[in-house]
Amino acid sequence: RLEGSDCESLGSASGSEGDAECEASLPDLELLHDPEDELLCAHLLDVVRATLGQAPLGAKRRCRLLMPEPLAAQVRTELLRLACSEPCGLRGALLDLCVERGRACHDVGHIAVDPAVVPTFQLTLVLRLDSRLWPKIQGLLAAAPALAPAFGQALKLAPGFRVIKKKLYSSEQLLIEEC
Question: What is the CATH number of the domain that holds 99?
Answer without folding.
Answer: 3.90.470.40
